[in-house]
């Protein structure tokens, strides 16, 4: 139905536009959580327009974590 995708986009939005957010993605198992992270969060961030991506530069870009250098927020599995 798209509910998980909507929640993940709200979480990514919070990380981009709010200071010092620390958000964790959980699911029934680690593989599912990593898949959600890669397929929803990371995909959306990687496909932002270049001027937006340049404004929200990454401090950390790992398989299980994105951390933003401009506002101290991060999202991880």
Short description:
The protein has helices at residues 3-17, 30-46, 50-55, and strands at residues 22-24, 58-61, 65-68, 74-76. The chain has 77 residues and is of the alpha+beta class. It has one domain (3-76).
Strand percent estimate: 15-25%
Compute the CA-based radius of gyration: 12 Å
Count the E strands. 4
For the biggest sheet, the summary is: 4 strands, mixed
Spatial gap, N to C terminus: 22 Å
H/E series:
HEHHEEE
- Counted by DSSP, the helix tally is 3
- Name the overall outline: globular
Give the domain tally.
1
Walk me through the structure.
- There is one protein chain.
- The protein is of the alpha+beta class and 77 residues long.
- The chain has one domain (3-76).
- It contains 3 helices and 4 strands, in the order H-E-H-H-E-E-E.
- A hairpin with a 5-residue loop joins strand 3 and strand 4.
- The longest helix is centred in the middle third of the chain and has 17 residues, at 30-46.
- The two termini are 22 Å apart.
């Amino acid at each position: 139905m798209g509910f998980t995708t909507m929640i993940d986009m709200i979480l990514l939005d919070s990380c981009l536009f709010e200071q010092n957010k620390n958000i964790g993605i959980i699911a029934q198992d680690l593989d599912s959580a990593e898949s959600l992270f890669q397929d929803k969060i990371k995909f959306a961030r990687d496909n932002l327009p270049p001027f937006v991506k340049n404004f929200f530069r990454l401090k950390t870009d790992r398989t299980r974590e994105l951390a933003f250098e401009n506002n101290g927020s991060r999202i991880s599995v």
